[in-house]
Design goal:
Length: 210
């Protein structure tokens, strides 16, 4: 894979490039220079060129970048030209909000099932999907070609669920549970700690007041 030797810092910037290029596409812009893109994104033009050069460059000096081509190529690097089947484990407010978020499908991410262990909500419907008991996760993964699991459950339950996901050879885990997961290197984990982000914002506000 071409991204294996690329730093995570560069990889982390690709979704932002993809998002901005999508906006440019919607505006009908066909071509853009690194200088013009830098003004929009508040990133230096040299940084943009360095980032893109890791993947072949995509443009010609003095000619700029073809917006549609660059958008599609970055999408391929991010794996967005493929379909990904997801399950959500944890049918609380966050889990249901993610299940109802339509933009995932525009990026090729399809929620196929939602699970919880609370008997009182089993069978309830979220966006046309019945909430299933977590005991059915293993069979559902095998039968529905699931490659990503989204964890939106308390950390107490996450550890046991992860054992099942490992046994099912899940490809990736999007982890909203406040716990560090112990998984093999073959399983990719993206941790999302919402409170961490809020605390960073708090620090910036507090720092300005000093």
């Amino acid at each position: 894979m071409q991204g294996k030797n690329i730093s995570q810092v560069v990889i982390s910037r690709l979704p932002r490039y993809f998002r901005y290029l999508g906006d440019l596409k919607d505006e009908g812009m066909e071509r853009i220079s690194s200088g013009e893109l830098s003004k929009r994104m508040n990133v230096t033009a040299s940084q943009i060129r360095q980032d893109f050069n890791h993947f072949g460059g995509f443009g010609q000096q003095g000619y700029g970048y073809n917006v549609n081509y660059l958008y599609e190529e970055i999408g391929k690097i991010l794996g967005l030209d493929k379909k990904h089947n997801l399950i959500i484990i944890g049918a609380g407010n966050l889990g249901q909000a993610l299940a109802n978020y339509m933009n995932f499908e525009k990026r090729g991410f399809f929620v196929k099932g939602i699970f919880d262990c609370k008997e009182e909500i089993i069978g309830q419907t979220v966006r046309g999907m019945k909430i299933m008991h977590t005991s059915k996760i293993a069979d559902f993964i095998k039968e529905n070609n699931i490659d990503i699991a989204v964890l939106t459950l308390p950390k107490q339950g996450a550890t046991e669920i992860v054992k099942t996901l490992v046994e099912c050879n899940i490809c990736g885990i999007w982890n909203f549970a406040h716990v560090d997961l112990d998984v093999p290197d073959s399983i990719h984990v993206e941790n999302v700690h919402l409170s961490d982000s809020l605390m960073k914002l708090s620090f910036k506000i507090h720092d300005d007041e000093e």
